[in-house]
Amino acid sequence: MKVIGTAGHVDHGKSTLVEALTGTHPDRLKEEREREMTIDLGFAWLTLPNGEEVGIVDVPGHRDFIENMLAGVGGIDAALFVIAADEGVMPQTREHLAILDILQVQGGVVALTKIDLIDDQDWLSMVEEDVRQALAGTVLSKAPIVPVSARKRTGLERLLSELSEVLAKTPQRSDLGRPRLPIDRVFTIAGFGTVVTGTLSDGSLRVGDEVEIMPARLRGRVRGLQTHKKKEDVALPGSRTAVNISGVTVDQVRRGNVVAHPRDYNPTSRMDVRFRLLPEASQPIRHNSQVKLFIGSDELVARVRLLGIEELQPGDEGWLQLELNKPVVAVRGDRYILRRPSPGETLGGGIVVDAQPKGRHRRFSDDTLARLEALAQGTPADLLMQALTMIGVGPFKEVIARTNLDAAQAEIALDELRASRQIIFLEAGGDPAIQTPDSLVTSRGYLEQLSTRVIQEVEHYHQANPLRRGMPREELKSRIKASSRLFAALIARLVAEEALQENGPLVLQPGYEIHFSPDQERAISKLMRRFESAGFAPPSVKESQSEVGEAVYAALVDLGKLVQVSADVVFSKDGYDRMVTEILRLFDANGSLSAAQVRDHFNTSRRYVLALLEHLDAAGLTVREGDVRRRKT
Ligand code: GDP
Predict the structure, then answer these.
(1) Residue range 39-55: average pLDDT?
(2) Collapsing DSSP states into helix, strand and coil, what is residue 348?
(3) Strand pairing category for 180-189 and 258-260
(4) Which residue, 457, 488, 515, sits at the end of a domain?
(5) Residues 577, 583: Cα–Cα separation, whole Å
(6) Which of 207, 272, 507, 564 is within CB 3.0–4.6 Å of 570 for a Cys-Cys bond?
(7) Hey, what's the torsion of the CAs at 391, 395, 400, 401, to 10 degrees?
(8) Tell me, what's the pLDDT at 313?
């Protein structure tokens, strides 16, 4: 489920537009939801022309825009940026735009609203021109500008179709296997107990999950989940979610806390960040100044340590270390905003580069600055993935060697990537306990490609050789051109996943069976009858092949219906079993016997008996000593 957030100057018509689009005025949401007996998720819902449902976070009246923009670490997928055509770009328009930019909101649509108030087309063109200029260089630089009137309901269709297009281009929320829900509201529902709402990111939550309320690490359990208007067993990343939690009381939880699985996250009271002071900021930022930090759904007080510069000027970027007045949950890559406490002013923001720095950094340290620079270029996880992409598959230590990461950083990144199944250990069923630096790793994408190729090769083999039970392992290996080690690991994985089946030296599609044509079936029956009536002097390999054809003959051997014991001697399975049992019984009764004695017993020709005895020698069941043989002990 995608989420849109509205932004724009107060009174420019955001709520009216949301109401026109959704039929719900945001201020009335709560009571309507109460009437419907579903939980008020603080959202309005919009159905796009293609039927897709989209959540809208609106900021009615004067409620704090930033708090809402940040609600949920993942924030919003796209912005509905509202500018009134009669007033045009205002200071708050620019501030909100700057914030969308800091948060790197993926896309958006500009609604140039209240056009029913404009008679003068030139004015409208002028305002549009202004808007274009304001958008230049921001995340919304390419956003479509759609003139609308919420009051007259004009332009709404085009607005929806533009939103639809923009949303289609925004990426799906990633599932890193470690869900977190920054709480934006806490309340109780009679008979249920504590309910929290937020936008879920980085993983899924399930009913029954044990959870931790961070940073206090209070343990509780997910008793119920609701997304949109429905009760769910699972909530997916990106969903607006209400969680009913048992084991915690409402007064133990507050806005800004985070619901996560136990031990997935560590709270932090200090972080290294990249920061940009907005060009519109009224003053420079000084070392040690106090600011308000907005991150996730939390708001706290932080002290700024300016690491590489005395004073940061408006429009400039720099490295800060933030000392927080209380612990929060944050990870590398999270976006944040800083504001001046009073008079209230948005200063700027940026991205968390290290959420768990080892300590206080000395200012102006070249080492520290270089390390932060390197981290910003790419996280250890990024670097590992880049290296892995270069080699495709290889021993883990080789991947690390390409990154210049130290062992500790690599270890952390590895855990992260393994949790999100981006790096896959190929051997030992991926069991982390038995992995070493020599273990073979690959990326999920590369593994999928390789697996598809292997499966296709086997499929093609079946098509080209319908009378073969499976593809010889060695033939498959040479087609894939993989090392023995990689090949063995791949086949083991595919067999474990039941994508392939193994049968001795053959690899086959699960459940693949040879199907003979009616003509072939008839020839086979005829041949088998010959074997039955021939007793211990069956048809030769050549005769059998000319009866059914070479391919069908090979299939019968493959299927074990015929047992070929030498270049020209073959028995039916039954005949073979009877003869072997009988021969072994003879040896047990007589100790040692010559080939002639065995032949006489069966009253058959020497050719069959010799071939069979040599076959038994080779199988290690009998052993030859001069002219006689005996059972091998
Ligand atoms: P918000 O603060 O951005 O949510 O703005 P509102 O939606 O509360 O609208 C502010 C004022 O503008 C209200 O008086 C609305 O009736 C009015 N308004 C909103 N949209 C339109 C429109 O399309 N045309 C006209 N003429 N007035 C509008």
Answers:
(1) 76
(2) strand
(3) antiparallel
(4) 515
(5) 10
(6) 564
(7) -80
(8) 97
The CB of 27 under 6 Å from ligand 1? The reply is no
Q: Which of 71-85, 256-270, 363-377, 576-590 has the lowest mean pLDDT?
A: 71-85
Contact yes or no for 239/276 (Cβ under 8 A): no
- Asked whether residue 330 falls in the same domain as residue 186, the answer is no
Question: Are both 164 and 35 inside the same structural domain?
Answer: yes
Residues 6+ positions from 581 with CB-CB distance below 8 Å: none
Closest atom of ligand 1 relative to the 149 alpha carbon: 23
Amino acid 42: pLDDT: 59
In a shared domain, residues 464 and 506: yes
Region 343-363 average pLDDT: 89
- 541-547 — which CB contacts under 8 Å span 24+ positions? 541/567, 541/568, 541/569, 541/570, 542/568, 544/570, 547/523
CA 74 / ligand 1 centre spacing (Å): 29
**Residues 343, 400 within the same domain:** no
Are residues 8 and 104 located together in one domain of the fold? yes
Distance between CA atoms of 112 and 20, rounded to whole angstroms? Answer: 14
Helices (H), strands (E): how many in the chain? Answer: 19, 34
**For residue 70, what pLDDT is reported?**
58
Does residue 174 sit within a domain? Answer: no
Is residue 86 within 6 Å of ligand 1 at its C-beta?
no
Asked whether the predicted pLDDT for residue 264 surpasses 90, the reply is no
Instruction: State the distance from the centre of ligand 1 to the C-alpha of 16, rounded, in angstroms.
Output: 5
Give the domain-ending residue among 260, 282, 301.
260
Taking a C-beta distance cutoff of 8 angstroms, is the pair 245, 211 a contact?
A: yes
Angle between helices 444-464 and 473-480 (to 10 degrees): 130
Give the separation between CA 544 and CA 571, rounded to whole angstroms: 10
Give pLDDT, residue 459.
94
- Gap between the Cα atoms of 319 and 89, Å rounded: 31
Domain count, the chain: 5
16 is in which domain, residue-wise?
A: 2-168
> Which of 170-179, 375-384, 485-494, 555-564 shows the lowest per-residue confidence on average (mean pLDDT)?
170-179
CA neighbor of 58 nearest in space, from 9, 15, 93: 15
User: What pLDDT sits at residue 60?
Assistant: 47
Considering the domain architecture, whether residues 387 and 510 belong to the same structural domain is answered as: yes
Say if residues 420 and 177 touch (Cβ distance below 8 Å). Answer: yes
- The secondary structure of residue 406, as a DSSP letter, is -
Nearest CA to 272 among 184, 362, 156, 186? 362
Q: How far apart are CA 425 and CA 510, in angstroms?
A: 24
The token duo for 10 is 């107060």
Q: Whose CA is nearest to atom 10 of ligand 1?
A: 11
Average pLDDT, the chain: 88
The verdict on 452 and 505 lying in the same domain is: yes
Nearest CA to ligand 1 atom 12: 13
Closest residue by CA, ligand 1 atom 14? 11
**568-572-577-579 Cα dihedral, nearest 10 degrees:** -50
Upper half-sphere CA count for residue 36 (Cβ side, 13 Å): 13
The minimum-distance atom of ligand 1 relative to the CA of 19 is: 7
Q: What is the mean pLDDT of residues 374-394?
A: 82
Beta pairing partners, 317: 276
The reply to whether 411 and 461 lie within a common domain is yes
Element (H, E) at 418: helix 407-419
CATH of the domain at 530: 1.10.10.10
